[in-house]
Amino acid sequence: MPAAIDLNCDMGESFGAWSMGADAAVMPLISSASIACGFHAGDPAVMQSSVRLALDHAVAIGAHVSLPDLQGFGRREMALSAQEAYQLTLYQLGALDAFVRTQSARMAHCKPHGALYNMAARDRALADAIAQAVRDFDPGLVLFGLSGSALPAAGEALGLAVAHEVFADRSYESDGSLTARRIPGAVLAQQTAVATQATQLALHGTLSARDGVRLQLRADSICVHGDRDAAAEFAHAIRAALDGAGMTVRAPSGAGR
Predict the structure, then answer these.
(1) What pTM did the predictor assign?
(2) Where residue 117 sits, what CATH number does that domain have?
(3) Which residues contact 165 (CB under 8 A, 6 or more apart)?
(4) Mean pLDDT of 50-65
(5) For a designed S-S bond to 121, which of 8, 39, 145, 149 qualifies (C-beta 3.0 to 4.6 A apart)?
(6) Which domain holds residue 151?
(7) CB under 8 Å to 128, separation ≥6 — which residues?
(8) What is the spatial distance between Cα 47 and Cα 96, in angstroms, rounded to a whole number?
(9) Rounded Cα gap, residues 131 and 125, in angstroms
(10) pLDDT at 156 over 90
(11) Regarding predicted confidence, which is higher, 104 or 256?
């Protein structure tokens, strides 16, 4: 039984006059924050304030890299080459790192967002390109990816520390992939169900897929979605469930630390 697990949330997803999430309420409850880098959400002001908020709460900071898709919130798949995946990952890492360094801090991880995350979970060439960009930028960063998928495998092959990520509020398919958001029930709506799934994953690494198949998943980090309705309430429920189960919530250690 694991004694510790990371609790991460996608943060800094407001931009301009558009507000998203409940970052100030969620940040004290988590151990890792993946901050949007301007491609699917976020802007320079939001990136800077999100970094400061994470540091105020001693939360590990990561780059939440995405396809260039503000209109679609990074959830629409795009055709891109491995070289393009490398370039956009490296670009966004550098953008967020500028704000982190001005606070005399260090980034801890990189986590792709939305469509890029799911594409890299199944496409090893894209996964290799993202992992290479992370390694070239800072081999001490932890690479987050869908548990058991091509992305953490690519990171491990390059000697990166990886975090196999699981989701407390998402439905799964029998192959270990996330249920597509267009399918009813893909996002779990009840706090009790989400808290139960989080605890089951943290303690045992198991859950039931949408068709009833029992999945065994490596669970290094649990994602709390910051862009859902009542995000703070769901985060509270998950954190309370993990604390009640005796879990220590802490960020994963990087390869270079």
Answers:
(1) 0.94
(2) 3.20.20.370
(3) 8, 111, 144, 145, 146, 147, 220, 221, 222, 223
(4) 98
(5) 149
(6) 4-249
(7) 82, 154, 157, 158
(8) 7
(9) 10
(10) yes
(11) 104
Q: Does 42 reside within a domain? A: yes
Question: H or E segment at 163?
Answer: strand 161-167
256 pLDDT above the threshold of 80: no
- The reply to whether 257 falls in a domain is no
Q: Is residue 256 part of a domain?
A: no
Q: Answer whether residue 76 is part of any domain.
A: yes
Cβ(21)–Cβ(13) below 8 Å: yes
Find the range with the poorest average confidence among 111-125, 131-145, 183-197, 223-237: 223-237
Task: Return the ∠ at Cα 232 (arms to 231 and 236), rounded to 5°.
Answer: 120
Q: What is the DSSP letter of 131?
A: H
Half-sphere exposure of 3 (CA within 13 A, CB side): 0
Res 70: pLDDT: 92
Number of other residues whose CB lies within 10 A of the CB of residue 230 = 12
Residue with tokens 């597509």, as numbered in its chain: 180
**Helices (runs of H) and strands (runs of E) counted in the chain:** 8, 10
Whether 227 shows a pLDDT value over 90: the answer reads no
pLDDT at 128: 98
Kind of pairing, strands 60-65 and 142-146? unpaired
Cα 159 to Cα 99, 193, 231: the distances in Å are 26, 36, 34
For the chain, what is the domain count?
1
Half-sphere exposure of 111 (CA within 13 A, CB side): 29
What mean pLDDT, rounded, does the chain reach? 94
Q: Are 32 and 109 in contact (CB under 8 A)?
A: yes
